[in-house]
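Hi everyone, sorry if this is the wrong subforum. Our group has a chain we'd like a structural model of before ordering constructs, and none of us has done structure prediction before. Sequence below.
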Amino acid sequence: MGLDFLLTALVVVLVPGTGVVYTVATGLARGRVPGIVAAFGCTLGILPALIAATFGLAALLHASALAFQVLKYAGAAYLFYLAWQTFREAGPMAFHRQAAPASLVAVARTGFLINVLNPKLSLFFLAFLPQFIVPGEGAVSLQILAMGSVFMGLTLVVFIGYGVFAAALGARVLRSRQVMTWMSRTVALAFAGFGARLALADR
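Answer:
Right subforum, don't worry. Here is the predicted structure as tokens:
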């Protein structure tokens, strides 16, 4: 595992995706602790994809058009559901400060499901990690598992940073009803866009 892998993985983690948007939105709407919990949930949601890549299950997913389509549409439907919840200012990302607080379990579960229901994540690991395998440095599966674990560690650290920063910003910014409504609509639109992109994905 070299520096090239670490730098590439860090860049991938830093790029905003569904997990980043969810963690930032949770930090903004709910505060520091829920933002950190969201980061843990999103990171834990990577584990099934890592296991699939390690044991070759991701290749089976890639080969099975039906399995890919089922998981893809389930993931897209969940993102549309999150968009609708956010638009209605309900659920773990409700921006209204007087909204009923979401449990930390619900916050973590949402982050977990966002990644688990994304078939592109397993295929990403299948395409990304093998590029950095070093011949003669141990079993391929162990190298993939090690690199995937480092990737998860980077994800957790970066996402916690996003969540904590968003919470600090939210405490200053989300004071007026108008700003909260604007943020809620923006996040809802982002999730709807992610859902549409996933639904239209073809591998």
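For your construct planning: The chain has one domain: 18-89+99-200. Residues 18-89+99-200 form one domain.
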